[in-house]
Amino acid sequence: MSLIEGRTGEWEVVIGLEVHAQIISNAKLFSGAATAFGAEPNTQVSPVDAGFPGMLPVINRRCVEQAVKTGLGLAARINLHSVFDRKNYFYADLPQGYQISQYLTPVVGKGSIILDMPDGSAREIGITRLHLEQDAGKSLHDQQATSTYVDLNRSGVGLMEIVSEPDMRTAEEAGAYLRKLRSILRYLGTCDGNMEEGSMRCDVNVSVRKPGAPLGTRCEIKNVNSVRFVMLAIDYEARRQVEVLEDGGEIRQETRLFDSGRGTTRPMRSKENAHDYRYFPDPDLLPLILDPAWVEGIKRTLPELPDAKKSRFVRDYGLSVEDAGVLVAEQESADYFEAVARGRDAKLAANWVMGDLFGALNRLGRRIEDSPVSAAGLGEMIDLIADGTLSGRLAKDVFAGMVETGASPAAIVEERGLRQVTDTGEIETAIDAVLAANGDKVAEYRSGKDKLFGFFVGQVMKATQGKANPATLNEILRNKLAG
Amino acid sequence: MTNLTDLTIAEARDGLAAKRFTARELTAAHVAAVEAVRPLNAFITETPELALAQAESSDARLLRGEARPLEGLPLAIKDLFCTKEVLTTAASHILDGFKPPYESTVTQNLWDAGAVMLGKLNLDEFAMGSSTTTSFYGPTESPWRRDGDNRALVPGGSSGGSAAAVAARAALGATGTDTGGSIRQPASFVGIVGLKPTYGRCSRWGTIAFASSLDQAGPMTRSVRDAAIMLKAMAGHDPKDSTSAPQAVPDFEAALSGDIRGLKIGIPKEYRVDGMKREIEALWQRGIDWIKDAGAEPVEISLPMTKYALATYYIIAPAEASSNLARYDGVRFGLRVPGKTLDEMYELTRAEGFGAEVQRRILIGTYVLSAGYYDAYYLKAQRVRTLIARDFAEAYKQVECILTPTTPSTAFAIGEKSDDPIAMYLNDVFTVPVNLAGLPGISVPAGLGEDGLPLGLQVIGRAFDEATILRVAGVIERAAGFTARPQFLAGRS
Amino acid sequence: MALDKATVAHIATLARIKLPETEQGRIAGELSHILTWIEQLSEVNTDGVEPMTSVVAMTMPMREDVVTDGNRVDDILANAPERANGFFVVPKVVE
Ligand SMILES: [Mg+2]
Ligand SMILES: [Zn+2]
Prior knowledge:
heterotrimer; B: Amidase signature (AS) enzymes; 11-stranded mixed beta sheet; 36% helix; 12% strand; globular; C: alpha+beta; Histone, subunit A; two-stranded antiparallel sheet; binds magnesium ion; binds zinc ion
């Protein structure tokens, strides 16, 4: 636990996160309009989403299924009986004048997430609940000087609001929580976790207290849209609160906005005087009753999740916990790794994937799904190392060729003549030539200057364009120099 | 030729089938009648061209022998049902100019059955009222007058335009909606039949919401048979309404056997309210005698929670309404009163757009849902509502339906009860429990009060058993032989 | 329950209805009258009684995840008091 050092002593930061995760579905939670991102304004709107008179909600089964699936993935309790409520407030992008949400009885109850911290420790963060609700539309304030423009494309899109317990103590933990949650959601296929497009948004609750003291008053920082910003916002907000308190001030419970340009938070200017949502069960809907057999059926379709996959990678592939953790963070990299590792030297595979491949992807700014080197290709290349066709050194060149051209390793070996020379005669000839040309150095070596061995290896490699099998070369060279 | 506007739906249907007149003739007569009843202010919007065009296509179908159940029959629609590209107002200033890009399920069902639309009918603003005096478009007058008194009377409400138009023979039938009695009370006031079906029987999709857990559409007609015919067309499961019941719609007309022998009919003792008017009590007794004469068995039952129904209703309905009416904010449709800020625009728009009664109910509803009061009011009311529904469930262990008066009095004059909201609310004392329990109820004209105004009896049924209450209502209709007509008739003036 | 003017003003703000101050007293009186009448419900013993959640006994239907609506901007905007470039337009909001 890391504490903030203040003038009056140490302060503990208490953090809870509310994540709004957009459900992956074709249609909206309560209407038949599409959910795709980036459409022309108001083209993905049905009269239901626009709150027209007489329009009624009918729930999308897929959205419920996705919420249940997510609940199961968070090891959470699934509530077989839950209720949709109306949360009443006025806003330009809230067409009905209320948001259909779940208040007292959410579809998913308590669960948890395990965080693996960089120091190798694990932290369990409690999930308070997950509930289903509608997204609001979007207000654009900068299109015109005196007006706000409203686009309802997002209005009614299904969201899962995932609320954590106030279990986090540092910005790093909050960051790890978000990354882990996003990883689980992506594994489950219930949310794409894309924070830039707003399909995952985060409200951050921050308070500070003297260690051991009761919880302090919290501020909620609304709609922070990247992991990095969440961490910056927490650091800023915690320090701000410590300063206020140490100056003898009081923290007011309020909603704040994160200014990513300045790295600061500020209170929202819009009026919040009337903060009374008047929740009541939506009379247009009936209680959501789930059939236990249906829930069981969803459970059976759950994919292997990151934690289980990581344990298996450690157990079955002999990877370190850290390496396994890196590989399972994204389902795609885990799948890629497994495709490479299956039936091969898994540690070698892991090194290639995490080292050269991730490095290349980083350089190219590509995701592993669009990798120029396929898992099958990388696997073949490792096979070429295993059967002696390639030395580790040659393999680097072949890999670079694969990244560049997308060609198969065999083709590159063939085309560029990169095949390792294992023929002892050929190597011997090269060694003889090098030794003959460097008689003085041979004498020096023999008189005890061992370090020159590397020089001879280098010369032979140069002569063979790096293709000599290193082990064979070493052995013959050592014998010749000894002789 | 008989007066075409005097026919019942069943007679008009049979006349069209027998080619005694054309749909165009029938519709033209009604278009003229709609014009003739303008002094009543029953219509907000008249749609004569649409009606005549629909009638012509009906004639074509009739000629081809492809008549549907309501082929060519001119009806009028309460202006709470959204009608595609036709002004839809809920009788509110706030919906100024609103033309929905969709058609409500109930009206679509009617057009799919071949019916013809004469226009959109006046109502209490957002269906909140029992008098049709709160409409932005002015009050509707009843076609009736008290004996020896020429003061304009209310047609009841909120479906007062529907009641007046049907009673005055401007339409063969009309749609109504009933949240606390808004079909049955006006039907009783003007001497016609009004049926509130079981909650979930008719789709609420496309009908402007007042109180979602109570609202239900139903027919208002001049005979029980007509109500059966019209309900059959209006009803049915609608996947667009989550509360629409997946129940088969029986042939209600076929259920009108006239035979109620052996039927046990409950007479709830708690409906003998304090100070009940003698004429109401006498009317109820006549009803009991009629069903007994027809071989049914009246059984005294107890619905102990009855006295709490109105208070329960006046928590739940405004609470739901306060939320349902939040969407009228000047952003996407209807009236906008400009303001410097968004909130100012909202506040000015809603202050000008909503009338006094609607504002009153929104404020009450907002209050009972607000922090600190929710449990004491809304939650408490929903618990009492459970008890009210339980009362009926208990009663239905003994009886198959229940007979009560529809209203505690005959119609009152316009402006007579407007200063005390609670006095107005008391109009619904016999009808509200039915909505709270989601049950079907029908009002059938049974006689005239001492002032010469119509009075109805109400038959309440088990959920989804509209067939039985129609059958009982049919027996009462025959026994009552109600032939009185309002002073103001379209065909006569 | 007797409502005071301040409470009425607060409710009116929540409901976004402009109530002139001169009206607040009258409305407070009306609402108090209705609320007092409503409070007869407190006589009813509702211990252990579940609040009604749905009036008909049925389970909530679910629809399939199929796109059935959209691409009708003209329909959606046709009734708007103010619109521009495919958007609804409202007075400037400051966050
Ligand atoms: Mg939140
Ligand atoms: Zn939320």
